[in-house]
């Protein structure tokens, strides 16, 4: 197994979770000049070089015989010389044993990582106690929220550009929702989908439904047509609540939905009278606003069903970067664990004001940030759509103390012109996933951020980790002292398929230091920290579970991401399995090339993928750059690439996109681009190809025909 990796200046980025970096845990900042980055090199990690040195038989024999021999000697001394001599000998035996096995280096690693591990251990204990306390009392999210309402009813819970809702208002609206749907016959276990933009009513709606045990699939507001229909049907919805702005999207598929699916339209107050949808006039949908106005707001009606601690709360859909969205199951206990986990690990305070411009239908915004309001009584500032230029101006305006980012947001923000609010804010910490190590130092320096909490995890997974000490590029860590505390591992796997590699016993093997492998988390049924809830679709869930990992019969969630751990246990993202392609006998990591190319192109969106050339072995690299105004100078870009990347890692084709397709969490879709390839008859965007001298030239239909006929070699 071999993979390409940037070893000087950090590694690449991912659209799925976080960024990789070199094994030192710190990435060097690129030059402020976009086309003059620091010099980097890419090396190929040979499996023979990645494995720890093979110890001699004598060294291994010495290690294993030291403890019993020294213990026997200590026993003899204790018998003949007395207790004090014996205890001193036992102490010397312990020290000697540790020096030989595991060795003096262990003491050094233990010394430098103990502060980090201690902070994390105490946080983990607090999380477990918090979750266990709710489980013992069989409490759900609504119970904890109502306790916060009773304690601080007039404190602001959710703030946006146009709304300021107190805890009391949020609770009253949620009670109205619960009473409306209870009166309509909905009960515990029913499923009601929600298609609504970021606003206070979004949270109040699913919270109200949860008070009567109804499960709420949180549907991506970007979906249309078949994807939207799929999300409603795969979630097994019996009803759908949608905002007036999504009326046309819903009506387009209404006739194809199952007949039992009830439709409820929610209107903005400002256009409540003018919106007269076709669906309402035809009797397909009910007007929810009117129903809410007449419903009781003080409490949920007697006789309504109630959700238990381990019941399903919401479904959160995957982004659909590689296909149709899958509905991941989030229970009340899982919501507790995610929100409390990041709260205690990163040291959030109840009086913090959180800023999240992320969509509330995903875990990052809807659980990690919004959970701070519902469970801990904090104020959360939301925004309908992310604005790079408005990020820190919003933080200053609303006096936010913690900001959230995801995907490429940090790069967009960094690319904005300098402004007075860059440092005139109270943000002490930002947290999220996907902050590239290449821009991490510039970001914290420009905006005066004291702490970055980079995390990694999948909505459906149980292998979630966090970087709690702002180590540049790290997405989390594994304790080198007590790795058993949090059973996650990196196992050897095929970098192309993600399939675990097994030994002669049919079991998986852990990777060594700096050896890339697939990240897995041990599954323990009944434990909210280790449980794998998977998707609504059980067949899809089974694909994310690997069996017989380290012993026969055990199970683990397999992430599909290639990670690498350094000597101190810091973890760095390397690539998504399947995103690595082979060219000129070498493996090329798309995420690492994307990170370098984005810097060279002035922090623009870049997608790198492999394309097939007829009668040519492997796949050639192709980069799609979002540059609608054509600011990038191809000649200068080619020269910079020649200095930054080895020949095999440089894209052989360039495509300058006039538009780009992003998911709701700012992930880039590459499947369609890869399918279109470099054929100018199919691709309408401007295309270039690399000539033998490395200079990029326009790829015309005539040139394409020469490539197909193998008259042009790469």
Automatic annotation (TrEMBL):
One cellular component term from this protein's GO annotations in UniProt: endoplasmic reticulum membrane
AMP-dependent synthetase/ligase domain sequence ranges: 145-502
Membrane topology label: Multi-pass membrane protein
Protein's cellular compartments: Cell membrane
Listed InterPro entries: AMP-bd_C (IPR025110), AMP-bd_C_sf (IPR045851), AMP-binding_CS (IPR020845), AMP-dep_synth/lig_dom (IPR000873), ANL_N_sf (IPR042099)
Its EC number(s): 6.2.1.3
Gene3D superfamilies: 3.30.300.30, N-terminal domain of ligase-like
Family: Belongs to the ATP-dependent AMP-binding enzyme family.
Protein name as annotated: long-chain-fatty-acid--CoA ligase
